Amino acid sequence: MSPSTLKITVVSIVLFIVSTAAFVFMLIQSQQQGEQLVAQLTTLDEQRAQEESYYRLQRIAEESTADRAQLSSYFFSSESESIDFLNMVERLAPEAGVTLETDTLNLVEDAEDDKQWVEIGFSFEGSRSRVQNFLTILEELPYVTKIIRVNMVATSQSQWQSQVIMRVRVLTYDE
Fold first, then answer.
1. What is the pTM of this model?
2. What's the rounded Cα separation, in Å, for the pair 43 and 31?
3. pLDDT tens digits, residue range 42-74?
4. Which CATH class name applies to 75-169?
């Protein structure tokens, strides 16, 4: 082989090696960039999902304001609201045809569910049907209640007396 051919061959081998190395380097770089792009797209998708979740929860919170207000009306937000409850029950008693007396009013913690309740004791009397009707009214009051004890006795042939101990749930949560 002539020296010029040898020179051209060496130069071409060197150029081939350099171009192959450049091609391999660019291929590796493009794979790394592709992996970074996939990771960034995954992060972007997660961020968009969190934003969608946040906006969905915000919309639900706005749409459910009335429902949450209605639900919270079924609970006492504090023990002091028991006065309004007692006034309502005392207004309902004459309408139901019974005489009512409030015996006890205590704040208790239920051992079963570790929740606070206002425990109220009532005594009322009237005809049997009116006493039973008033018991039904107490059971159906728009509050979260538990009837703990009911004692109903006849004081005469037409008069009945009932003693009821009930609990009304005190709502405790961070607003």
1. 0.57
2. 18
3. 999 999 999 999 889 888 888 887 877 776 666
4. alpha beta
